[in-house]
Specification:
- The structure holds 3 protein chains of 3 kinds.
- Chain A is of the alpha/beta class.
- In chain A, 48% of the residues lie in helices and 11% in strands.
- In chain A, strand 5, helix 8 and strand 6 form a beta-alpha-beta unit.
- The radius of gyration of chain B is 23 Å and the shape is globular.
- In chain B, the strands form 2 sheets. Chain B has a 5-stranded mixed beta sheet with strand order 7-6-5-8-9. Chain B has a 4-stranded mixed beta sheet with strand order 3-2-1-4.
- Chain B folds into 3 domains: 129 residues, Nucleotidyltransferase, domain 5, CATH 3.30.420.40; 104 residues; 151 residues, ATPase, nucleotide binding domain (Nucleotidyltransferase, domain 5), CATH 3.30.420.
- The chains are: A alpha/beta, B alpha/beta, C alpha/beta.
- At the A-C interface, helix 3, helix 4 and helix 11 of A face helix 6, strand 5, helix 7, helix 13 and helix 14 of C.
Amino acid sequence: MGFLPIYVPRELLHAQGVLPVGLMGGRPDLEIIKGDAYYQSYICHLPRSTIELGLNGSYDALDGLIFPAICDVIRNLSGMWQMLFPKVLVHYLDVPQNFDPAIGGAFYRRDLESLSQALAARGARPLTADALRQSIALYNENRRLVRELYALRRREPWKVPTHELYVVLRAALVVPVEESTPMFADYLALTSADRSRRPQDQARVLVTGSFCEQPPLALIKTLERAGCYIVDDDFVQVHRFIRSDIPVDGDPLQSIVNALLTDAVASPTRYIADEVKGADLNQRATDSGAEGVLFCAPSFCDPALLDQPMAVRAVERTAIPWTAFKYAENNGQFQVIREQAGTFADSIKLWSGA
Amino acid sequence: MNYTVGIDLGSTTTKAVVLGEDGAVLGRGITNSRSNYDVACSVALSEALINARFSLIAGQFQSIARDPAQAPALVGALERKFRAEQYRSQLRVLDTELRRFLSRLLTRPPAATGIVDRIAGRMTAEVDALYAEGARRKSDFFRDLAGSRYLALAEEEARATGVSFDLLAGLFDKAILDVENSAEAAGRFDEHAAAALAALPGADPALTTAVARVSALTLDQIGSVGTGYGRQRLPFPEGRIRSEILCHGLGAHAMFPRTRTVLDIGGQDTKAIQVDEQGIVTSFQMNDRCAAGCGRYLGYIADEMSLGLHELGPIASQSSAPVRINSTCTVFAGAELRERLSLGEKREDILAGLHRAIVLRAMSLLARSGGVKDEFTFTGGVARNQAAVAALRTLVEENYGARTVNISEDSIYTGALGAALFALRSAAAA
Amino acid sequence: MSTTPSVTTAAQKDSSQVRQKEMIARHFDRLAAAPDSGARCAYTFVPGNLTELLLSFDVLPVLPEINALQSAMRGKTAEYIAAAEKLGHSEDVCTYVKSDIGMMKSGNIGPTGQRLPTPDLLLLSYTGCFTFMKWFELLREDYHCPVAMLHVPYQADGRITDNMRTYVVDQLKNVVIPKLEEVTGRKYDEDRLRAHLARSAQAEDDLVWVLQSAKNVPSPIDAYFGAVYYVGPIFSAFRGTADAVDYYRELRAEIAERIRQGKGPVTPDGEVERERFRIVVEGPPNWTSFRQFWKMFSDEGAVAVASTYSKVGGVYDLGFRHDPDHPLETLAEYCLGCYTNLSLPTRIDLLTRYLSEYRADGFLINSVKSCNSFSAGQLHILREVEARSGRPGGFIESDLVDPRYFSAANIKNRLESYFQMLDQKRAGAAS
């Protein structure tokens, strides 16, 4: 089963013997021939490449797609997919915006149960509590390693260049958890042991806004070459959407539900009821020792761009400087971003040196 | 003799097509669109009528010529002489206007009058060479031809005399408007034809007979329809205006009767049109509000690279490894180009990538309008660009399979032809 | 064949129009007086609005979307949007939001020129539009007032499930009603709610009758531009009021009379005398050039006989009515059923159905930059509806309230081409 950003409970799929495959749009060099025929110029790029890849057969191996509720574009894409690919399973995962276990939780649980039944109806194993507990345990370990990699990057960013980490995270979207966990472990061991990687005079920045349509790898490299250590980000966020381990004891499905209700990151796609907007971002900046915040959102991304003025105000309440730019997954030119990020990094270094 | 005319007022050029009562094309005329739309239309029409008369002369002469095999060449020579005469008469108007504006200048450098004399003299002296057999002209429009020559000569004079080039260039900019905006400047057919005949002494006397017969013909307009980007401002009554979509559909159908899909890439917009077996439009799509991917974009690129628009295609065709260009945003074209050149990418590879990017935009419009059916007719200024055509052929074949791709030499007249056919229908129905 | 000069004749004001104007004026008077009268007010959205519930608590609704479109019609949105963009709001996002924020920062002067009260509650009916959620998060930062979030799930599979209904009812019971009780200091009064709901159903019957009157040939109404006025009261502060019941009864009688006389729709530039094209329209109108836009249709004798925009506040023509016997369930059904909460396949079914039921010549999509809920997928809708109905679709682009995105020449060019194509097809079919 393919799934779109940001988050689906992969444990559930895994427990039924289904391989979750994370779909993140297209590579920058994917030529969009059919996808553009479906979208006006003012709509972001991800759905175009998703349709292009669907129509050119790249997703033929998938039995279906899950569209998590994150914005109106992805929402409507779910209906388009039903029409374009009538034979595959299309599930719109309506992530609750009410975080009361008895209300939003109950709704979400029933939605997950219906997904589970739909999978079973297509030949997946029926869901059992035991299998789900095992899957949760596997994904807990998987997520723990990602957290360790992020922690290592916070401590010694020169050891975990983001353009490398990013590729590892992306690779993990398309292989079984049984393979991605050892891959994370290997990468962690190798890069921790690598003494040739030495610290450089780079500014520590937090990158935010790139939770759905992904920046091209060259953009991440551009930021690093422009003098930034990325010490926190929201790329490929499915790996970190749930912040800590999900309990394996008790009712495992309820644990998955509760994790979303109480332990998910404060994504701009979620309604923030009681906390102060941007508090989570500021906390992450503090925890990662970020010296600057880069608002790095895809063009025409409603959740990121509507959220940004609030997030900017929150950051401005701290002493951390920020800058903002936009991209599309198919950007080919980075000169402007290089200059902007370079100037930003230089000013941070000057400022911290003074 | 009765005729109908269709006029397509585009953002860069105005085209006219004249049809006989049997629906056959008698003549085509084109001129650059200008601030005065009435004049643009009347110039295009008079050019089309001149063209029509030459076709008639050719037909008449062919049957009475002493040596029929030589007849076409002789008519060709006559037309060149005619064009030279026309050009000379426009130069005279230009000269008068230059002097008029010069006399109005408050601070007139003493050397200026002499300069204008010298430039006008040299330009007049060059006319015969400009229209000699086999001579290449960069444009068929007086503004372009006279303009590039005038500015080159003005630059020489400015260097030699110290008189400001800007002053000389400014004079031309004012004077040319009056030349362009008077339909009279191009002169009358019979006068120029007589002068052209006189310039061909010893030619077959039958040619004189043919010219005399055709000059004596009165051409009566029995119907007209206007279309194009500027059609709201055409000097036509509302009932005689048709959308360019309908005209392009019908025009393409007339040129290639098996046409089912039409793509037109013009200066300001791109149109994808589906037509039925009678040339009736069944659906269409136009580019959205930004002009990315239209002909104008290529114009910016040409300017940015200091190339002529017509040079882009041939250079792009030399590419063996086109660069992937993702944006056809006109606003960013310049910056993108400079960055790529600075990265050391080859000019031909960048240009090939740009052509492909434009065609990709057109492909998405085609898909929106209902795809590419057989046969497929490509029209508009960009259809004359070989690199764009090659990219389009490849992409069409990859996405829709084998398709007959029609491109007419006269594709720029497609809209005007459709308009003329609508005019003919109305005239026939009246 | 192009414009026929005398397609419309001079306009007259119907008494329903006068009544509506008075209703709106009274409402804004009450809002302006709220700081003194102590009346509570809640800001909320058109799709999924809970007007009856608010009225049962004597809470006055304020609808920022309506304020934004009214601001656009008064030519104020260019400056409001500029003000919001100066504050860091992206040029890429919804201009309703930016217009509203710009208006708030410019003194919060409403459509009648009176100052709007600050909200006592932001009732976030998160129905059919993701942006709503961000909109009220943004307003909350300025107003520091309570927010009641009502998450209405999406009808992704084209139907309302028990799970969805239960979820919405649970939120009404446990979130929305307690918040209203807290803000007003009153107890929830289900009998009052039922009374309002009964009046809603009455008005809804008449509204549906009015909208379906466009099935007549010629149509007595314009079901897109004209319908904007007809749906006004029921989509905003008046559903469930006696005023609304009276308004729709009167409107219905007026339309019935138009049908009897064989009259066409009334436009601001006069009456459409000759109906040349019957069109179904998808997508919201442009508000900055609303009259000019409408005139591009009426000049050509093009009449909208059905539209989806007139269903954003409820798709009543499919049979839904507020049901006083099941007050919370009916509110849930209502919220779940609004047009922008429908899946794309459902929207395509609806448009296809309209084309045949209203005997339309074709359909037009006005794709607005602001609203991804409407716009994302409209090109797919175009393709599918054309294929299923065999009738031609037209596609134009503009925006809700950003005048920078209304290119009159461009839109007129496309509309004219479209109408001429319809004409030509008809001539071709006749020959």
